Amino acid sequence: MASRALGGPALPLANGLSIPVLGLGTSHVGGYSHEAVVYALQKCGIRHIDTAKRYGCESLLQKAIKESGVKREDLWITTKLWHSDYGYENTKQACLESCRRLGVEYLDLYLVHWPDAQVPGKSSREVRAETWRAMEELYATGMCRSVGVSNFLINHLEQLKEDCEVTPHVNQVEYHPFQRPQELLDYCRSRNIVFEGYCPLAKGEALAHPKIIQLAKKYDRTPAQICIRWSIQNGVVTIPKSTKVERIQENCEVFDFTLAEDDVAILNGMHDGRHVSWDPTPIV
Ligand SMILES: NC(=O)c1ccc[n+]([C@@H]2O[C@H](COP(=O)([O-])OP(=O)(O)OC[C@H]3O[C@@H](n4cnc5c(N)ncnc54)[C@H](OP(=O)(O)O)[C@@H]3O)[C@@H](O)[C@H]2O)c1
If pLDDT is split at 50, 70 and 90, which confidence band does 29 have? Predict the structure, then answer.
């Protein structure tokens, strides 16, 4: 782990910023809890919040951040561009609107949410490139302190390399014991793209697995803590989501124990390729 910043260990980005390795997920799936976000910020030292236009809670987050009393400069805020806003002009407008809903003047990280563009008459590659040129501009103006992608596979990243200038700072991808895309992770590392994992608990599915329950017993931890710790030990930024304060607390208590190498290997061996969210493989 390179540094400690913004309330916990952080990983360095290619542009010199540091992203806190543990963030708080938010989402439209399973609801939004104002109490949980305020608790995470006030009581658990969480300084990294992951959201998206798609989740519909950017304005609600503005209220929670305000109530928490945590200063803007002490927070890492990631939000995402939804595909209905792809394209050069729309992207710039969508970023402004996300900032307005969040009540901020800049984003720490803005991600292109999904590689499929769904624009009639244009290939997704063409639209991704047009969109990325706007992201590059948002980065150059400082409105986005870093820019990245989400759910991009190696082929999408290779195309972007041919079509554009700035290498994404981050790729946010599904990552939990059943879904460990090692080739993509190695590729991202080779290009200095920070790998961020979403659905670290496999939306709860991983928590009932006998091997994970066994490891939880061994370390006197919970299955959720085992999964989150495993992501962190693999050098992956992780953003578990919960709407319950007691689980938020639990999910943050992952910096005072270490999984032995053999146990990391057990978890690494559980990959079966299943997705609990989206599978971007068919998208060209
Ligand atoms: N870029 C993308 O395309 C993308 C896609 C999906 C997700 N994400 C991001 O990743 C974040 C996390 O993903 P996710 O919410 O889908 O999955 P997740 O974090 O793997 O799992 C969340 C689920 O686990 C439960 N849970 C949380 N902590 C728990 C604990 N300690 N014990 C037992 N159950 C627990 C939650 O229920 P309760 O609320 O009832 O606690 C919820 O049902 C999202 O919030 C979002 O920010 C990004």
Answer: confident
Q: Which atom of ligand 1 is nearest to the CA of 33?
A: 39
Q: What does each C-alpha distance from 132 to 55, 95, 111, 233, 255 come to in angstroms?
A: 21, 13, 10, 31, 36
Helices (H) and strands (E) in the chain, counts: 10, 11
Q: Is pLDDT above 60 for 114?
A: yes
Is the CB of residue 252 less than 8 Å from the CB of residue 40?
Answer: yes
pLDDT digits (tens, 9 = 90+) for 189-208: 999 999 999 999 999 999 99
Strand ranges of the sheet holding 9-12, from the earlier edge strand across to the other edge: 3-4, 9-12, 18-20
- Taken as a whole, the chain contains a residue count of 284
Give the separation between CA 151 and CA 156, rounded to whole angstroms. Answer: 9
Q: Hey, what domains does the chain have and what are their CATH numbers?
A: 3-268 (3.20.20.100)
Residues labelled as active-site residues:
55
Q: What single letter denotes the amino acid at residue 201?
A: L
| DSSP states of 125-149 | HHHHHHHHHHHHHHHHHTSBSSEEE
Nearest CA, atom 46, ligand 1: 25
Measured by CA distance, the residue closest to atom 44 of ligand 1 is: 25
Residue 80 pairs in a beta bridge with: 111
Residues 6 or more apart in contact with residue 279 via CB below 8 angstroms:
none
Q: Rounded CA gap, 174 and 248, in Å?
A: 20
pTM attached to this predicted model? 0.96
**Is the Cβ atom of 175 under 6 angstroms away from ligand 1?**
no
